[in-house]
Amino acid sequence: MPRSSRNPGEPCSLPSDEVIYTTRPRRGNQRVRSNYRVAEEASPVITWFTYLACFLRTQAQQVLFNTCRCKQLCQKLMEKTGVLVLCAFGFWMFSMHLPSKMEVWQDDSINSPLQSLRMYQEKVRYHSGEIQDLRGSLNLLIAKLQQMEAMSDEQKLAQKIMKMIQGDYIEKPDFALKSIGASIDFEHTSPTYHHDKARSYWNWIRLWNYAQPPDVILEPNMTPGNCWAFAGDHGQVTIRLAQKVYLTNITLQHIPKTISLSGCLDTAPKDFVIYGMESTSKEEVFLGAFQFQPENTIQMFPLQNDPPRGFGAVKVKISSNWGNPRFTCLYRVRVHGSVTLPKEMSHLNP
After folding, report:
1. Which of 35, 115, 256, 287 has an alpha carbon 20 to 30 Å from 96's alpha carbon atom?
2. CA proximity to 241, closest of 157, 317, 181, 331
3. Mean pLDDT: which of 12-21, 57-66, 243-252 is highest?
């Protein structure tokens, strides 16, 4: 059907009377009149049909035009829907790989600085605790120093005397202790001095004797009167050691004058000689001669054990005291050395 140049929405225009009258050439007046009459009779019917045809054609054109527009709209909609589907699929694929990349980015740009910050905080806390501990120790030290400064000279002197009495500053093993197995060889020891004031009587019957035996010198008790006494100023005592010892030193100990009941130290030993003895034989080896000064309550003497030998017994032979003619008191004897050959003596051993 050929398209009309008119708009589809425009109503169909009827032909004018001039067109009707001038459609055909005039052949005669009679013919013209007849035609005019026919046209006049048929004009109402043609007019209605013409209007109907124009209306139908207009509606058909509008339907066709709307159908074309719907097709174009559907085509565009399909194209855009395809684009949207492709975009959604691409976004889904991108979101599948995005977390790993985000984790890498977080590890590199966030986690590393956070971990460094946490480690720094932990170090700060640790060092803060150390500083607190050091501060507490420093405060304790300052308090102790203040206490020491507050001590009087008498207290310091009393502490020194207690250390001297206890013998803490010797710091050498004592092989003449009774508690580790040392004992007295009574066969080669002077008899104990017996004084009447050291005895207990009941109706002229002697009950017991307060005199101490020789093995009291092997114990660390240094109270006044707890000593071994022998008659006169000459005497000896032989100490059996628990095992053979390479002797290096010997120590004699006496009570200080300040706690002596008599107020003097005339019963203290003065000159004495040390001998080393084998446990099986009675051979005596001279180890040195010394003099004890009672002003110093504890005195240690080096022995002349050259060449070095191990001895199982020690004899202390006293030849004088500090003025008492009746008896001599011996409070404690210590024997020092080692059970193995000392390194400083190894080069002297043949």
Report:
1. 115
2. 181
3. 243-252
Give the model's pLDDT for residue 217.
96
Global pTM value: 0.51
Question: Tokens in use for 34?
Answer: 């007849």
Return the CA Rg of the chain: 68
Please, which residues have CB within 8 angstroms of residue 228's CB and are 6 or more apart in sequence?
Answer: 192, 212, 213, 214, 215, 216, 217, 237, 329, 330, 331
Tokens of 46: 């043609």
Of residues 222, 208, 223, 217, the one with CA closest to residue 190: 217
Give per-residue burial for 157-186: e unless 16+ CB within 10 Å, then b: eeeeeeebbebeebeeebbbbbeeebbbee
Question: Residue 279 contacts by C-beta under 8 Å, 6 or more apart in sequence?
Answer: 240, 244, 311, 312, 313
Summarised one tens digit per residue, pLDDT across range 148-206 is: 776 666 666 666 666 655 555 677 899 999 999 999 999 999 999 876 554 444 444 44
- Tell me if 319 sits within 8 A of 301, measured CB to CB: no
